[in-house]
């Protein structure tokens, strides 16, 4: 019998084959696991997400909410399922009866609904959407909302400092995001409160067992464009009163509030410092009996969130915190050393790591008897479904895992070096599936965005594609990355292009010295967002790279201060200076040194990116061409900052082709 023909990721079009699972929930009898399966439709050039039910007894899988649209965020109450769908044009809450198969729309918002969940022990549900700030606390949907004429004037009058957002466009100053309540039997809506969800968090709200109290996150100061602090609040459905549970701290970010099954505690992630992006989250516990709030992870230098980088996952909605039914412990995700782990945490803060080695735990759901189900990713196994019971993980067959049985994967090796100041430089080197140690391979340094993110031990299609085409891919987590403690994360703050640059060069030197298969004469570099900034910066500081691809990049902090949707506060914090010191902003800008560039550069940018505006690529490209440097620019219309992850699939494919083609142009054969 002949050897089985293996598939690989050598073609950029392999992106169309990607399938993911997410948003897992258990049926009340715990015999069925519901989840969202997201696929790519190459004909419609878009995505579709269907809700599936997997029988845990016989492993069968069946679609219960149709393909062809984006259906996600399922939440179950007995035989009644709520979910979000864009089938009517604007994402709304829909109802599905698992027995009768009845399917109907429940909300009729003029703005997309962003979240839905049941209120325990009731026929009511919570959802979030944008409403007019003048909205009364109670109203009834106009079911003919689609016929309402909206403002189509070809102009905007702007008076707010925060007037735009990537992926949204201009912000309507008369609207804000509200947490609302509604029953499944009528269209009457109770508007509870303005609502916010912190950076990197997922849980919008939680309820006590009786369904009488709702816990949610909102901004401490509404309408202040400079203040991004948030707290946890409690809403009493009977008295309609709202209590600020984290008011013992005047500042900070507190989110993911999750109430224990016995109703005695509320655990949350956050920190008590004024909002700054690099501040790590810790764990805080609110005791309802003593009305006291304390940090239970004092002295534990870990980031409590999933900050892993990938272009694979879609529609990930599950919270990062889950209580055990005994209310004596809970489970939480962390980002550490290139892995996303899951910890069992006691009320006193004692922690036990129960995660599989060298993996990313993307989502967790827990049964009524304390059995954990998880979606797990590894570099060579895109998606595992596993159950944690009696102290060990056991895999459960799933259709996504089965679909990758015939693929060959690039493998990951950990690398670690010591920075000039004694800090850690950790990362991952990706080896082609047919790697041979006696050959020489060109190497691509791939720099993540953020900078407060983390390359991780998960499936990453882009790296698989580049490796399949004969490249080593180096994924470094320089200072500024999450996963290595607060000092490491804070090491890039007000220091862009300094220690982070030397960290990356140290890693390059290290792998060249340690591995004879690295071809030091064929080095390439790419990255997006912050990684795009670093790509621009690197080629102004060194000529050791044969070619570079800069994506959704930053080149001029002076102009970016006024054009980015977050420029007026983020880049002031990141550089330590505002527009009153343009000389200091300019010192950190790659454009200031553009004449020094000798490396051929391809700039890839989305035309409608409001985070790193298109003008950033334009300026750097113009500067390069002005000084007769080798540069080209690839611009994608009708796309934003998330192009490489959730953008139009055909654009994502063309982007991958362009990166490889540019490197191949300058690669020695």
UniProtKB/TrEMBL annotation:
One of its GO terms (molecular function) is serine-type endopeptidase activity. It comes from Jeotgalibaca ciconiae. Keywords: Hydrolase. Coiled coil: none annotated. This is S9 family peptidase. It comes from the Bacteria. Gene3D superfamilies: alpha/beta hydrolase, TolB, C-terminal domain. Residues 458-666 form the Peptidase S9 prolyl oligopeptidase catalytic domain. GO terms for biological process: proteolysis. SUPFAM superfamilies: alpha/beta-Hydrolases (SSF53474), DPP6 N-terminal domain-like (SSF82171). Pfam families: Peptidase_S9.
